[in-house]
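Tutorial handout. Part one gives the primary structure; part two gives the three-dimensional structure as tokens.
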Amino acid sequence: MSHNISDAELVLRAKQGDHGAFTQIYERYAPAIYRYIYFRLGEAELAEDLQAEVFLRMFEGLHRYEDRGWPISAWLYRIARDRTIDVMRRRRNRQQVPLDNWNGSCEGPENSVSAQLEYEELTRTLNDLTDEQRQVIQLRFLSEMSIQEVAQKLGRTEGSVKALQHRGLQSLARRLQAPVAACP
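Part two.
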């Protein structure tokens, strides 16, 4: 039933205070908005929070929404994209401890020793990569840069950065006998 009603009709009804229309918009687009956010951030709980925020912003701003021939989903995706970019910027701007200065300190001496050994193995393994692969891996995962940002920083194409990242990760996976464990 809900898919027979156009987005424009749902928006009109929602603007008039029809809570069922809000629900139908939510049910129609919430799963896709969640997937969009999740695949960019990789965290289910954060994706759920941002998904809720997208629909809250839609609810709060719907009275200002003007139908310009675009589906309501375009507006929802724009809100989701903006919120996702905000989160990614905050992550990038967070104070980061360089891997070279990390001492692996977790609670308890056995965790500290274990983490230090894992750090040393990871450092040795990273040093086994080519300079280009190591640089790409460090920028992508330690500095949390996008493929595009790494390409700009290194003066390479995005395709070559992706290739270096792929080969570097394959090499790391082959060399590391067990995954680096996080502190419990």
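Part three, for discussion. The chain is about 70% helix and 0% strand. Residues 10 and 180 are 49 Å apart (CA to CA).
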